[in-house]
Design a protein that fits this description.
The chain contains 7 helices and 10 strands. By secondary structure, it is of the alpha/beta class. Helix 3 packs across helix 4 (118-131) and helix 4 crosses helix 5 (147-159). The longest helix has 16 residues, at 177-192. It is globular. Bound molecules: adenosine-5'-triphosphate and magnesium ion. Adenosine-5'-triphosphate is lined by residues 14, 16, 21, 23, 43-49.
Length: 224
């Protein structure tokens, strides 16, 4: 079976003044299609760095990152952006919704950027918002939504283009316990429907919902 995501001997150092900060040191790991994997480990260990590489938002110094079997090393900006826009959906701790747009406008935006026709984009965005339980909040702006609802909109935006992999960086990190549980239940439900999910988290409860846990510490991965 081919991998959804693959890191092969990946190293990444951030230049930080004269000194370099080693974020990942020769990391190799893979995520299979249909898996729900949690990345755990201490702050500064490298979880976000690995997720950003898996999301083609950054490039490794050495090694290779493959997304749905496609190597990202040496890809030019155009193909890299296309790969990111078509194969990956990303959910952030602080939601990163556009504040002036309504829920449905936030969700349809990735489709419009891909050249989808407005009517089709609106229909698809409306359907996905219904899927995450927000069919009654389509025209609300982010400031009119709870944190849990904002994260649902963000998840809808991340899956609206049917990406191969959904990446989430501490998706419950800014939510209370109950809203966090609902977001994890939503991610687990999407995974049960076939969506591959990789999530960084500090929450043991969130990690327990995953099928597999990778611990990242000092830029290295150990399987738990
Ligand atoms: N843009 C950057 N510039 C310089 N150093 C960075 C940058 N981003 C991350 N780092 C450093 O790289 C290391 C790994 O950071 P990373 O954000 O991947 O950790 P993390 O596991 O996600 O931590 P947390 O649990 O706090 O989110 C840390 O030492 C961090 O300070
Ligand atoms: Mg992080």
């Amino acid at each position: 079976m081919s991998h959804a995501l693959e890191a092969i001997h990946v190293s990444k150092t951030y230049r930080d003044g004269a000194a370099g900060v080693v974020a990942l040191a020769d990391v190799s790991c893979a995520i299979l299609p249909g898996e729900f994997v949690a990345l755990i480990g201490p702050s500064g260990g490298g979880k976000s760095t690995l997720l950003n590489l898996f999301g083609a938002m950054d490039a490794p110094d050495s090694g290779d990152v493959r997304i749905q079997g496609t190597s990202t090393v040496g890809l030019k900006d155009g193909p890299l952006t296309r790969l990111r826009r078509t194969q990956v959906g990303f959910v952030f701790q602080f939601f990163n919704l556009l504040p002036t747009l309504t829920a449905v406008e936030n969700v349809e935006l990735p489709l419009l950027l891909q050249g989808e026709r407005p009517k089709q984009a609106r229909e698809r965005a409306t359907a996905v918002l219904a899927e995450v339980g927000l069919d009654d909040r389509l025209t609300h702006k982010p400031s009119q939504l709870s944190g849990g609802q904002m994260q649902r909109v963000a998840i809808a935006r991340a899956i609206v283009h049917r990406p191969a992999v959904l990446l989430a960086d501490e998706p419950t990190g800014n939510l209370d316990t109950k809203a966090g549980e609902q977001i994890i239940a939503l991610l687990a439900g999407l995974n049960a429907g076939g969506q591959t999910v990789t999530m960084a988290t500090h929450s043991p409860d969130a990690a327990a919902a995953a099928h597999r846990v990778l611990r990242i510490r000092d830029g290295r991965v150990d399987v738990v």
